[in-house]
Amino acid sequence: DVKVTQSSRYLVKRTGEKVFLECVQDMDHENMFWYRQDPGLGLRLIYFSYDVKMKEKGDIPEGYSVSREKKERFSLILESASTNQTSMYLCASSWAGTSGDTDTQYFGPGTRLTVL
Amino acid sequence: AQSVTQPDIHITVSEGASLELRCNYSYGATPYLFWYVQSPGQGLQLLLKYFSGDTLVQGIKGFEAEFKRSQSSFNLRKPSVHWSDAAEYFCAVGHGGATNKLIFGTGTLLAVQP
Question: Partners of B111 in the beta sheet?
């Protein structure tokens, strides 16, 4: 079974702090994704990475950065946390390629971040 | 641009009743379609997916979905709902590009009455 783990289930930080959210997958997937989930808005893509050290902005990248130094690990960084970044953060991974199954994304359990 | 619409924000059904969750998509070519389920406080779990072939797709937990190209729909069904099915359900569309991005709907929250 594919396993995607996230470093924390719950996190409480203060405004202005630098926050790191870690995600690790064990399936040798090329692609990794960070989403933000808010009620009524569904999942919105923040950043994704299609290879080590490669990244692309998603739909809402402002206020976030990412790092992918190793294939299995994808980090989301909030440089200076703000209250409007209080949310559920979900990491996902998938294979690369163009066959149908490569679109299937596998999700971690999520990190609920509260910024005070 | 691709988009996914889940017109029902909340649905309540009685245990044992049948269920249909609606999903409509906008995409020029044949899409790849997914249904995911999210239990409270958890990540998303894949229920089923459609890439090609038979338009009726079977998934886990007794769910099925039917791809109807003429209606741009991919509705999720279950003949008899169990209390443990209470969760949020997300429909998603992809296009098989190399970066494999998915577009998600806003979700339907299912409540199950005893």
Answer: B12
* Gap between the Cα atoms of B8 and B5, Å rounded: 9
Alpha carbons A110 and A23: distance in angstroms, whole number: 9
Return the closest-CA partner of residue B60 out of B78, B39, B33. B78
Q: Is A84 on the interface with B (CB under 8 A)?
A: no
pLDDT digits (tens, 9 = 90+) for A75-106: 999 999 999 999 999 999 988 766 656 678 99
In chain B, which residues have their Cβ closer than 8 Å to the Cβ of A109?
42-43
| Contact pairs from chain A to chain B, CB under 8 Å | 72
Q: Which of B49, B101, B104 is the closest to A104 by Cβ?
A: B49
Distances, alpha carbon A38 to alpha carbons A52, A70, A85, B84, B95, in Å? 28, 29, 10, 23, 24
Cα separation, B50 vs A66, whole angstroms: 31
CB contact B51 to A (< 8 Å): yes
B2 touching chain A per CB within 8 A: no
How many CA atoms lie less than 13 Å away from A53 in the CB half-sphere?
A: 0
Optimal mutation site among B60, B91, B100, B103, interface A, most CBs of chain A within 10 A: B100
What does the block give as tokens for A30? 């090329």
pLDDT (tens digit per residue) in B25-40: 987 777 889 999 999 8
Burial group, residue B68, by CB count within 10 angstroms (0-12, 13-18, 19+): exposed
- The alpha-carbon gap from B107 to the nearest alpha carbon of chain A, in Å, equals 6
